[in-house]
Design brief:
347 residues; alpha/beta; ornithine cyclodeaminase, domain 1; Rossmann fold; eight-stranded parallel sheet; 11 helices; 34% helix; binds nicotinamide-adenine-dinucleotide
Length: 347
């Protein structure tokens, strides 16, 4: 039995997502994603917002991230399992969906492992455009795993970074990132310590994976005037920065009820002042105010960023062949005769 049009939902596989990125160009897509994310941060107040629903285990976490702008609903399924890479699996995998609020019918199902890397990098660079010191050209990139090259490219495409200094406790990861970044218009330096990676850097990105209160940056390593883009502290009991750094920084977050539980600020008092990034973008709160201030984007990843990324992909798919039609929704001739449809399929 052939499914009707009403049964079909466009599905973007990993293969098609990669084709779409190559078709658009990775840097153009990062810029496009940043524009969509920024546009949705500007209309932040009208979204349904809730901290993501997390299911924790000793090995990692599985999370659901829903939101809606009243017309379109979206959610992402994502995991975080730092030990996965040892058995040949990704630390982070994801997929997500958009649906029409008016009918509840899904309008897009997509892989989001690659898309999450793109949206995380686009969000980081978009935040840095508002917070990093003017004229920043050099970024320290600490943690050279799956996310790292995306971060480097986004900071080049969106913030004008032209030098990256790579460090990972695993030199193999640094060598991989340096290889991948060759030919992308960045001057790449591989470093033997986090201190070395931070020499001359105006932006410091930490993007490590370890399920503990890690200290990737100690207090004495961070001088005044830098912007810190902290990506890897995103779960209860999983942080990257010494508390002393947090106390010297102006801290910017996505959604405080989620970040207070998951972000670097879980190490601080629950009423420690933070600024919501959307307010900086909407012009109702200041971003960077002085050259010697330390700004910190305490990123954990919020549902609206995934919603924006799916919205961007949906718009870019129009007129392309980068999707399959998936027979996802039952569509009986009489909407109330679901059982009849099942019986006829057996005959
Ligand atoms: N904030 C967000 O929106 C967001 C989105 C995606 C991923 N993440 C987080 O970002 C982190 C990185 O993700 P990934 O997919 O690149 O993970 P990954 O496992 O592929 O890479 C992590 C890297 O960190 C390195 N590392 C671990 N401890 C270190 C240390 N002490 N010093 C230096 N390097 C160290 C590892 O060797 C590895 O190369 C994860 O913690 C993930 O949960 C956050």
């Amino acid at each position: 039995m052939q499914p009707s049009d009403k049964a079909l939902v466009p599905f973007v596989s990993v293969d098609n997502m990669m084709r779409l990125i190559h078709y658009i160009g990775a840097e153009d897509m990062l810029r496009g994603l940043a524009e969509y994310i920024e546009a949705d941060f500007r209309r932040w107040e009208l979204f349904d917002k809730t901290p993501r629903v997390a299911s924790h285990s000793a090995e990692g976490v599985i999370e659901l991230m829903p939101t809606s702008d009243g017309e379109v609903y979206g959610f992402k399924y994502v995991n975080g399992h730092p030990k996965n890479t040892k058995s040949g699996l990704q630390t982070v995998t994801a997929f997500g969906l958009l649906a029409k609020v008016a009918t509840g019918y899904p309008v897009l199902l997509s892989e989001m492992t690659v898309l999450t890397a793109m949206r995380t990098a686009a969000t980081s660079a978009m935040a840095a455009r508002h917070l990093a010191p003017k004229g920043a050209r050099t970024m320290a990139m600490i943690g050279n795993g799956a996310q790292s090259e995306f971060q480097c490219l986004a900071f080049k495409a969106i913030c004008g970074i032209d030098k990256v200094r790579l460090y990972d406790i695993d030199p193999g990861a640094t060598a991989k990132a340096a290889r991948n970044l060759a030919g992308h218009g960045l001057q790449v330096t591989t470093c033997k310590s986090p201190e070395e990676s931070m020499e001359g850097a105006q932006i410091i990105t930490t993007c490590t994976a370890d399920k503990q209160f890690a200290t990737i940056l100690t207090d004495n390593m961070v001088g005044s005037g830098v912007h810190i883009n902290a990506i890897g502290g995103d779960c209860p009991g999983k942080t990257e920065l010494a508390p002393g750094i947090l106390k010297r920084s102006d801290i910017f977050v996505e959604y405080p009820p989620q970040t207070r539980v998951e972000g670097e600020i879980q190490q601080l008092d629950p009423d420690h002042p933070v600024t919501e990034l959307w307010q900086v973008i909407a012009g109702t709160a200041p971003g960077r105010r002085s050259a010697d201030q330390i700004t910190l984007f305490d990123s954990v990843g919020f549902a609206i960023e995934d919603f924006s990324a799916l919205r961007y992909v949906r718009d870019q798919l129009i007129g392309t062949a980068f999707h399959d039609d998936l027979d996802l929704l039952a569509d009986p001739d009489d909407p109330r005769d679901l059982f009849g449809m099942l019986q006829r399929a057996g005959g």
